[in-house]
Write the structure tokens for this entry.
Amino acid sequence: MKIIHFKEAKGILSAHNGMNIYRGCTHGCIYCDSRSNCYQIDHAFEDIEVKSNAPQLLEAALRKKRSKCVISTGAMCDPYIPLENKLRHMRKCLEIIDRYGFGAAVLTKSTGVLRDIDLFESINSKAKSIVQMTLTTYNEDLCKIIEPNVSTTKQRFEALKTLHEAGIPTVVWLCPLLPFINDTKENLLGILDYCAKAKVYGIIMWNIGTTMRDGSREYFYQNLDKYFPGLSQKYHQKYGHSYEITSDNSESLMQLLRDTCEKHGIVHNRRAVFQYMHTLPNNAPEQIKLF
């Protein structure tokens, strides 16, 4: 049974203007890096820790900032977990970002992001808003195994189209492509076809593979044993306890990625995509002064 608990946080923004309003997740993705011990989540991962004062902390932080920037969220914990439908903390934070004229960059796997499309449009008209979505597999049945409690790939594709039609730029994180599972030409071409049809601005991809740390590795192997009998032994033999897990198909699939992106005008240089997401247009309004 999923449970939640509330905690008063001391701060909300990182040194690079990132925030997490929740800690933990209920998506159940078998490859989840956020389960890693290094992040020091001291409670059950599905027991969501809610930063109850996140909106207040965000407003206080933005009020003090001397210059505008893009506020990002979703790198550690998806802000659109089902709990958000009830608590609406993410929406409150977007309202604050909008009111103070800052930008927003949100990473999610949930079509729940469409609930706030009005705010993304408003933010984008004043500064910049970018919605990022992770896509890992074109196969819907496989998606339900490796990402069991989240919007399917096709649903995310439809959301990306809706966002583009609303004028919101989108970026796809095309990772991870797991060796022996979804690191195939067919899968990559299927996802890239979705990206082209949805007219995404850019794609973020390091290589074909994944990373494994203590904590996340054990959860991954447990799920391999459950859904792909014998595959965990194959991983152990080939990769041991390596941090970087690189597919044998990485070089050919990365070239396919580059060629396909060039064909469709999708930005695939990671540095260029990150720079775009975190740079405000020159005509961003001056910060609102409160009297």
Remarks:
- The mean pLDDT is 94.
